[in-house]
Amino acid sequence: MSYFTAADEALHMAVSRDGHHFGAVNGGAPLLRSSVGTGALRDPFIGLGPDGMFHLLATDGWASPAILHAVSADLRTWSSPELIPVMTSVPGAHNAWAPEFFYVPDRQCYQLIWSSAVDPGDADGDRDWQNTAQDHRIWGCVTTDFRGYSPAELFFDPGFPVIDATVVRDGGRFVMAFKDERGVNELTTGHKHIKLTAFTSLGGPFEPTNGPVSPAPVEGPALFRRDGEWVLIFDHFLEGRYGAVSSRDGLSWAPAGVVVPHGARHASVLTLPPSSPLRFQFKE
């Protein structure tokens, strides 16, 4: 599990043997800090790249149009973060949040996705990013080597603000969880919950949405397999805690248990195969 904390916007990690209890590694101290851009490292996501290395993507602050990228062979020692200017050439782009990537076999490429608010007629000014909803959509680009990237394009637009998309492969299709960003940041809000959709090809069509599958308000969904079922975890960002639901069929979801390190924010989960030499190198 990769995550950041409100007190320390850097890469923190935790490990789990069973997918139920995640214990912080490195004594809870971060494994990587950013020395570029805004200096923040939020919403960290880790996946395997074409070179067999672990690639980290992360948010570079509230109002940065670039995302962070770093590489590691062992999840402990990381390259110096670099900025990928994914939205800097898009007129009116105000930010680039919660970047992730997934592999697309039929095109032999990696699809990057992130959340951006784009309004060419609106100067950035003093946006209240933390408390006021912006008109976000999911944007993306593709790469084959994490060195060259296609121009940013709109990836998912359901007709209302959405953020925090995460995609996993399920047989011959892709399942995507995302946050319905309508509503307000209050415990009694409408929306601000997680929904699901699916697609077989980049660009869609997207299947009708399923959900909400979570309570509200939450954000930062992550999907992984545990004991033959899907588990969806999410951040109760106003309450300082984590929640989870699980499903055997991907249609019906019920509350599930998960324990994460205190203060964890916007976590992502990477499953290591049993044959991985890293599997037992990490201790809580």
Description:
The mean pLDDT is 94. The chain is globular. It has one domain: Glycosyl hydrolase domain, family 43 (Tachylectin-2, Chain A, 5 Propeller), CATH 2.115.10. The protein is mainly beta and 284 residues long. It has no helices and 19 strands. The two termini are 12 Å apart.
Topology (elements, then pairings):
Layout lengths: L1 E4 L2 E8 L7 E2 L17 E7 L5 E6 L7 E6 L9 E3 L12 E8 L4 E9 L18 E8 L9 E4 L5 E9 L2 E8 L13 E6 L19 E8 L2 E8 L4 E7 L6 E2 L8 E5 L16
Antiparallel strand pairs: 1-2, 1-19, 2-3, 4-5, 5-6, 6-7, 8-9, 9-10, 10-11, 12-13, 13-14, 15-16, 16-17, 17-18
Sheet bearing the most strands, described?
4 strands, antiparallel
Strand order of the largest sheet: 3-2-1-19
Number of domains: 1
Radius of gyration over all CA atoms, rounded:
18 Å
Provide the structure class. mainly beta
Mean pLDDT: 94
- Order of H and E elements: EEEEEEEEEEEEEEEEEEE
The number of distinct β-strands equals: 19
CATH architecture, by name, is 5 Propeller
User: β content, as a range?
Assistant: 35-45%
Spell out the key features of this protein:
4-stranded antiparallel β-sheet, 284 residues, 0% helix, single chain
In short:
The protein has 284 residues and is mainly beta.
